[in-house]
Model the fold of this input.
Amino acid sequence: MITGDTALSVSEVVQKATLARQSAPRLGLLTTEQKNTAALRMADALVAEAESIVKANAEDLQRGRENGISTSLLDRLALNLPRIEAMAEGLRQVAESPDPVGDTLETFERPNGLHIRKVRVPLGVIGIIYEARPNVTVDAAGLCLKTGNAVVLRGGSSALSSNQRIVEVLHEALASTDLPPEALQLVLDPSRSSVDEMLKLNGLLDVLIPRGGASLIQNVVKNATVPVIETGAGICHTFIDESAQPEMALQIAINAKVQRPSVCNSMETMLVHRDFARMHLAMFAAQFTQRRVELRGDAEACMLADGIKPASAEDWDTEYNDYILNIKVVDGLDEALEHIRKHGTMHSECIVTENAANAARFLQEVDAAAVYHNASTRFTDGFEFGFGAEIGISTQKLHARGPMGPPALTSSKYIVTGGGQIRG
Done:
């Protein structure tokens, strides 16, 4: 199923980016109804062709096993009928979500009679570079096309068969709509050179969005000349305060680590107030161990509970995306906040507490895209936030932050109406 001549990687990238660029003006003229129809037909096509997509995905999984990729990456890569139905449901929610394009953000009139209106417009052509999650292909297509943006996708080599089949299915669906199939492009060349070329496609790409591990993201941020919306690695923490309800704290912590450890909003470090730890950490450790979680902790955590290995200095700065959890015992809120400032990645952070003052201070002082009180960090997700899907989770502070739904994929322009005014 994998095609494409890597010797022609430059021409493939430029050719596909050019096709996307040429289609962008047409996208900006489509009505919301036309775009919604396209999203719904793409959703129906995914369900109708689910078996062929699973078959293509099996090729990727087999290669992944042969290449020795980790269990957590295999989980990110794997598709089955429920996951494909979830991808289709995401497209349906995108269709149901408000269309931000054309929204008036503000309007005002100047003393000279000029009427000025600021409106949302598409970004243009978005390049997305991502790794082993084929659901990103669908999310990106749905969100970009809903917001009038053409998109050039460059997925990881580990998901190439899955991505190729998914885009074939989406193209077939788009062919029966008013939305040009050329607006959705997939780069097939799996070599590093195709990524390097996308980073420099000024004039063809308006923005780049990387999704994946820290090394991929940093490569894009440091080397791109095209503007970048940075998504971040997720070293997420849950702080269990002294007043936390033990059963609630346990359920939140278990969910944050175990429900799907391979994703960026899963918990990597659990911070526990010393008084709470002395009473409950042994029970917590036993519950994690029953769920096959390897525990690593500071000296006090190792002393208070069985089955915890000493943590290294590097562990506190590691995004495992696996069944591994760091545990640190802290004096209280101040030490927890300091640890998060030092080791967090400004993604998602949680406090479990019944102390309203501590909760308010945590929510205000923690600098992250999403902060939680008494809820799992696993909710940092476009689907869970009601966006239908997400293009990524931005951990930067410019333009967009957190799960990026449709409004994050727009820019703005001023529409100025006059009656013959000239500037003196």
